[in-house]
Each structure stands twice: as structure tokens, then as C-alpha cells.
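# nightly structure sweep
# worker-07 picked up a monomer target from the shared queue
# config: single-sequence mode, recycle default, output format = C-alpha cells
# input follows
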Amino acid sequence: MSTRPMMRESRVSRTAVMALMLLLAVYFLLPVYFLIVAATKPQGDLASTNGLAFSHFNLFENLRILFTRSDGIFGRWALNTILYAVLGAAVGTLISALCGYALAKFPFRGREFLFSVILGGVLVPTTALALPLFLLFSATGLVNTYLAVFLPSIVSPFGVYLARVFTNAAVPQELIESARLDGAGEFRTFFSVALKLMTPALVTVFLFQFVAIWNNFFLPMVMLQKESLFPLTLGLYQWNGQTARAPLLQQSVITGSLVSIVPVIIVFVLLQRFWRSGLAAGSLK
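# output follows
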């Protein structure tokens, strides 16, 4: 049998796949490109010029207006978002690591049932939990505080699931037994031995948590009324709702949207070698 038809078919398939990937890349990157272009324009050029073509470069002036508008409230929203996302993701990752490690390495009655309940929590939409959380936090007096957004953000059933999978893949039981024979306690074994082996995988958990909290909108909208507590998503949404009576806010909304995605891109670029290896470990398991 000739190999030429097979080689031709393989080349056609590869070309089709590459064309599809290129089309998808354009589809996903086009909104980002539009955002970059729009953020460089003066307010008057937004409607009078082609949306995908650059005009007068006004980015630095737009940034100055953005960070000085309303007594610099955008900077406060940015700091709030960093606090919610970085601290929430860090604490949430540690909790997920502890829970996943316990579920993977400690045999106890009801372990599989508990893990099934956690998996069930992955299927529950976060929007469905907003009202119960609001009623709970209202009863405890935590509504309209930082804790109203921070505390729900540190709980991640999906993070616990990933941590258990990664623990089974990366932490040999023999190594844990050796640490115990050397006299190490359970917490010391976890922090000195297991956590180091789980680090690349936990970066993946951290990134999932970080992005989810950074993009969180519905929970802050339900929990917060003070403008000084808003994250970027809720603050920009509020500004966007005011553009009908204050058209000059439109440029600040666009520029603020561009600024809000820059930290996420930076975090992904800096941590890419860790989360890629973490995803590989999870897929192998």
C-alpha cells in the first residue's frame, strides 16, 4: 500500500487543524486588540473612527484621567481586587492543599463519601450560593465588609479535587512513611516534604483561584454597597451604567478594562512553567 495518500491525508488534516486554531486565536484575541486600540484613543475618536484602527495616541492622558477621576477611586478598586485575589487565592490554595492531602493520604471512614460531596460542590453554580451567603453574612453582620467577599473566595471544591489528584501523583506514600519514621509530625511532614513536591501543581490551583476571584462580579455586587470596597469588576460596571448621563466615563471604562486584564496576563506569564507542569501531572493521573 502506498504511503503517499496517507501522507497527503495527514498534511490536509494538519492544515485544517492549524487553520481552525488560527481562526479560534483571532476570535479570542480580537476583543483584546479592540480594547488596546480603543484605550489609546481620545474620547471623541471612539465613535468617529474605525474601531479596529488606531487614531491619535492618547493612552497616557487616558490613564491620567482614569487614576484621578473621583479622587482616585479606581486605584482603590485596583488595590481591593489585588487584596481579594492574591490573598484569597493564597489562603484558598493552602486550604485546598491541606484538604486534598488529607483525602489522599489519610484513610478514614467516610472518606470517599466526603470526597463525593466535595465533587458535588463543584457542580453548584456560584451564583446559586450568593443569596444563602448574603443571608448568612447579614445575620453575622459581615455584609458590606472585606470579609464578605474574602471568606467565600477561599473555599474551592475544585481546588480540593485538584489537590487530591496532584497529591496522589506527586507525593509517594513511602516518602511520607520515611518522614514519620524520622520523628516528623503530620504538619511537619506536610510542610517540609509534601508541600514542596506539590508546589508546581498548587500553582495551577492558585491560578484557577486567582482568575476566578479577579473576575468575580456577582458576589461583590450582592455583598457590597460601599464604593470604597468595590473590586475592579463592580466599579467598572457602576461607571458603565453612568455613561448615559456622563458620556466621558466611556473612555475611562475602556481604559480601566485594559488595565484590569494586565495583572492577569503578567501572573500567567510569570507562572506558566509551573502551571503547565501541574496540568501535565494532573492529566497523567
